[in-house]
Design goal:
Layout: H1 7-27, H2 49-59, E1 71-76, E2 89-93, H3 95-104, H4 106-112, H5 114-130, H6 132-143, H7 147-154, H8 156-174, E3 179-186, E4 189-202, E5 205-209, H9 220-228, E6 232-236, H10 243-258, E7 266-268, H11 277-282, E8 287-293, H12 296-305, E9 310-314, E10 320-323, H13 329-341, E11 353-357, H14 370-384, H15 388-395, H16 401-410, E12 415-418, E13 422-423, E14 433-434, E15 437-442, H17 446-452, E16 460-466, H18 469-483, E17 488-491, H19 495-508, E18 512-514, H20 547-551, E19 554-562
Parallel strand pairs: 5-6, 5-8, 6-7, 8-9, 10-11, 10-17, 11-16, 15-16, 17-18
Antiparallel strand pairs: 1-2, 3-4, 4-19, 12-15, 13-14
Helix pairs in contact: 1-5, 1-8, 2-6, 5-8, 5-10, 6-7, 7-8, 8-9, 13-14, 18-19
Length: 563
């Protein structure tokens, strides 16, 4: 193919960004090349708010033709959680045609080398970044996130996670030199001399199985990790959240073609309603890597059955916060209220179980009983969400009927400390918006265990009364070990309690946040600095992002000869 974008041009354009990303993952300091504020866009080819909204509106009711081989049908059916029928249709693939076509371009992509692959990936991310406003509407109307969250989490934060994966991929590939001269002394005899060449080679085709709630944020790490390590990538979106990943594939195909590579190195696998092609794809021999975010049941199935592939899963867990004591009671309540409310609790990192000593906690405002803490937290959430406009901006919309059903059923599991209420969104009357529910449970009662030891995805939290801090640590350990956890939080002014919780998290491999009372929340992680998941407990088999997430997506093959 003739390249409109030369390797030299792409390296000149993006090498400094790659170097900054490499430094950021080394230092773990704050850094991002992607602006978080909507007003930062509109220059140097990027779409401003009006242009991004117009671009999204222009997509509605259209056919998104990606120019893929093997298209045998057009499929769609996405309906926004805000009540809009998107009406976009996508190519449905004949896998026996598409998969061989995807493999055809891998040799040239492999031979391009780690640096060129990295800067091509950075150019893809730049094209996506320029369309952040358009992508924000696509994420909002497939996930139910409120616009600002869709803009930030679905835009710059997702792009950061993609770039982070590229940086880790680059580091692991250049760890071994391209060439080496090897000489072994033989005493009086001539030395043995060899020249050796080392080439990172891809495993094959990577399959990204997208999720409904965070299609880009959860999809980009695996997508860019596989692409940067030389693999072709097939993107299988969640059927309710196709558009953001279809636009991603569109941008990537354009850049690959302009850079002189086969655009079929990335393709979309949309499905007919009820077709369920993820299982079919996962067992295809061409699929050698799988990235999955979603339910524990299907993640477990992938790990057990997709034996030909390297499988990276982010499933689900029961996230826990231990509340023992605090020196900032108001700040603790405010932080927890926001964490429980953000995106209606529809984050894999949202706390579910709040473990509280039944005799109460010590605070800077004096002793507080278990009942007082729970009532005060309920009031903090009511205060945060008391204004409907602010509530809509924080809660977004309930993403699917299953979440709504779990929310409604939660009230029957115990004493309700905070009832959920319905909120009307004046801009989108069809949106289902609900405030969180808090249910009080006695951790010593067996009938309560079925509730707090199961994941209840959505705006549902359990205030679990325990006998002591030691019992809280023991229950935390059991929960992480048996059910997994993406996040753990703790509030304590006691060094011994802090050490006990810390030791549980180290031994059970769970990420811990201590005494958060300001503007950082347990359910948020920052690319280049925070690890998302650990890969060490049942909630996920991988961490976003570390060396282990990228290193096994390629193998190093040696060619040696006598010098």
């Amino acid at each position: 193919m003739t390249a409109a974008l030369s390797a030299h041009e792409l390296i000149a354009r993006h090498r400094s960004t790659l170097d900054q990303a490499l430094e950021a993952i080394r230092t773990r300091a704050y850094w991002s090349p992607h602006p978080e504020h909507p007003k930062a866009y509109g220059e140097n080819g990027s779409l401003d708010a009006a242009a991004g909204k117009a671009a999204f509106d222009a997509l509605l009711g259209t056919r998104l033709d990606l120019g893929q081989p093997g298209t045998d049908d057009w499929v769609g059916g996405e309906t926004s959680p805000y009540g809009i029928d998107l009406g976009v249709t996508y190519p449905h693939a004949d896998l026996d045609v598409l998969l061989p076509a995807m493999k055809a371009g891998q040799r040239a992509w492999r031979d391009a080398g780690a640096e060129q692959r990295a800067v091509v990936c950075l150019e893809i991310l730049k094209r996506i970044s320029d369309r952040t406003h358009e992508f924000a509407h696509a994420v909002m109307h497939t996930s139910g996130q409120a616009f600002m969250m869709a803009f930030q989490a679905g835009g710059p934060h997702a792009q950061d996670r993609g770039l982070e994966a590229v940086a880790y991929a680059y580091v692991e590939q250049v760890r071994t030199p391209d060439n080496a001269e090897w000489t072994k002394p033989q005493g009086k005899r001539d030395p043995l001399a060899m020249t050796k060449q080392f080439t990172p080679v891809p495993r094959g085709i990577g399959l990204v199985i997208g999720c409904n709630t965070f299609p880009t944020w959860n999809g980009y790490p695996g997508l860019f990790a596989s692409l940067a390590t030389g693999n072709a990538v097939l993107v299988k979106p969640h059927p309710r959240a196709v558009l953001p990943l279809a636009l991603t594939v569109q941008a990537a195909r354009e850049v690959l073609a302009e850079a002189g590579f086969d655009p079929n190195l990335i393709a979309l696998a949309a499905e007919r309603p009820g077709e369920g092609i993820a299982k079919t794809l996962a067992l295809r021999p061409e699929i050698r890597i799988i990235d999955y975010t979603g339910s524990t049941a299907f993640g477990d199935w992938l790990e057990a059955n997709a034996r030909q592939a390297q499988v990276y899963t982010e499933k689900a867990g029961v996230n826990t916060v231990v509340v023992h004591s605090t020196s900032d009671y108001k700040g603790m309540l405010s932080n927890l209220a926001f964490s429980l409310s953000l995106y209606s609790g529809q984050m894999c990192t949202t706390p579910q179980n709040l473990l509280l000593p039944r005799e109460g906690i010590s605070t800077d405002q004096g002793p507080k009983s278990y009942d007082e803490v729970v009532a005060d937290l309920a009031r903090a959430i009511d205060g945060l969400l008391g204004d409907d406009a602010r509530a809509n901006a924080l809660l977004g919309a309930i993403v699917n009927p299953d979440v709504k059903a779990r929310l409604e059923a939660a009230a029957g599991l115990g004493e309700v400390a905070l009832a959920s209420r319905e909120i009307t969104n004046p801009d989108f009357p069809g949106a289902v918006v609900r405030t969180p529910v808090i249910v009080k449970l006695d951790g010593a009662k067996p009938d309560a265990e079925a509730a707090y030891m199961s994941e209840c995805f959505g705006p549902v939290s359990f205030a679990v009364a325990v006998d002591s801090a030691a019992d809280a640590a023991q229950l935390l350990r059991r929960t992480v070990r048996e059910k997994g956890a993406m996040t753990v939080g703790a509030y304590t002014t006691d060094p011994e309690v802090e050490q006990a919780v810390r030791e549980v998290c180290l031994e059970e491999a769970a990420q811990l946040s201590l005494n958060l009372t300001g503007g950082v929340y347990v359910n948020q992680t920052a690319a280049f600095s925070d690890f998302h998941g650990s890969g060490g407990n049942p909630a996920a088999s991988a961490a976003l992002c570390d060396g282990a997430f990228v290193a096994n997506r390629f193998r190093v093959i040696e060619v040696r000869r006598e010098a």
